[in-house]
Specification:
Blueprint lengths: L7 H11 L2 H9 L2 H22 L2 H17 L6 H13 L4 H26 L8 H6 L12 H16 L7 H13 L3 H18 L1 H14 L7 H4 L2 H36 L8 H23 L11 H33 L1
């Protein structure tokens, strides 16, 4: 039987922090990040409840919300499949039926959407914008484009973005209309053209692509504060400092726990670290880093806004480690007390 409960005081801290402006600002913009973040959090909570209580409605809820998160933001299409892998890795065939339920709705909805795109737009894929997204991460490779028209328009768009003091990653969106007109392509055909173009660029210049992904991965953890909650320099500094602190705590915890897990594995041959909390923690990490990898490797716009869909899971991971540390400290104190009494 698994136990995911944490101390009430830490739950109240989590609730308080989660309601602070940096974590709710997306709601004011009705952005896809706000919707996806809610879907991921509810799906994750439902899956944890299913693991603890083994009630099938929780599994169905998790499948439903993960499926709609995938439809809202394609960066999370593979999320339920990753979670199924972790479940089967830790719990084996005991949760095989649950694994099927967890991915079936996502597979059905995504498959239906792909079929609709193929029938309606003659594009067999989840979104034809992938080519445009990849073009935003290969900005440094524009001079290497073999098509002269595409090279000219994308370089022109990139230079205009630089001149305006704007992010050059958005040059593709400025160049789309001229490219459609000069190449004589429809919107979907241009997307296919950009996809093929970027595959060639990445294949021939993998190091430049990996450098761009690494830069995006770094910027991904920068503070995300909009004008809505910033306002004055003091408020902006306050929220920036808080987001920096939480990101630093989370990343340091991940590095430290990874080192401890490897040490336990080498010394004892067993992967023993956080007890029943391990599976929940790894599932949260899976969603967090899967979202980051897809965002940086495909979208690559280096926008911390993309991280906001996993902010609640980041807070949860910090909370879970804090609860484990407090429990371990308490157990050590009790053990030391027992030893001292025996010695007396």
């Amino acid at each position: 039987m698994f136990r995911f409960s944490v101390r009430a005081a830490l739950v109240w801290v989590f609730a308080f922090v989660a309601l602070l402006p940096p974590f709710v600002q997306n709601v004011a913009f009705l952005s896809t990040e706000a919707i996806t973040g809610s879907f991921l959090a509810i799906g994750f909570a439902s899956l944890c409840l299913f693991i603890v209580e083994r009630r099938w409605p929780y599994c169905a809820l998790a499948s439903f919300f993960f499926a709609w998160a995938a439809l809202t933001r394609p960066t999370n299409v593979i999320t339920p499949f990753l979670l199924v892998f972790l479940l089967l890795l830790f719990l084996g065939k005991r949760l095989l039926r649950a694994a099927v339920v967890l991915v079936c709705l996502t597979t059905l909805l995504v498959g239906s959407y792909v079929g609709y795109n193929a029938f309606k737009f003659h594009y067999l894929g989840f979104t034809y914008q992938t080519g445009s997204y990849l073009t935003s991460i290969t900005t440094e490779l524009y001079p290497e484009i073999d098509n002269p028209i595409a090279r000219e328009e994308l370089l022109k768009g990139r230079n205009e973005m630089y001149a305006a003091g704007m992010n050059p990653h958005d040059a593709v969106w400025r160049a789309r209309k001229p490219l459609e007109e000069r190449l004589g392509l429809s919107e979907v055909q241009l997307a296919k053209f950009l996809m093929r173009m970027n595959v060639r660029l990445i294949t021939h210049h993998p190091q430049a692509y990996l450098e761009a992904v690494a830069q995006a991965a770094t910027s991904y953890w920068f503070p995300y504060v909009t004008k809505l909650i910033g306002g004055t320099s003091i408020r902006t500094l306050l929220w920036d400092a808080m987001e920096d602190l939480l990101a630093a705590i989370f990343l340091i915890e991940v590095v430290m726990l990874t080192g401890m897990a490897m040490g336990f594995k080498i010394l004892t041959g067993k992967f023993v670290l956080m007890g029943d909390r391990t599976l929940a923690y790894l599932m949260a990490l899976g969603i967090i880093f899967q979202t980051q990898i897809v965002s940086c490797a495909v979208i690559g716009a280096s926008i911390p806004r993309y991280r906001s869909v996993t902010e609640l899971l980041i807070l949860f991971a910090i909370l879970l480690v804090a609860d484990w540390a407090l429990a371990a400290r308490h157990s050590t104190s009790v053990a030391n007390l027992a030893v001292s009494r025996l010695n007396d």
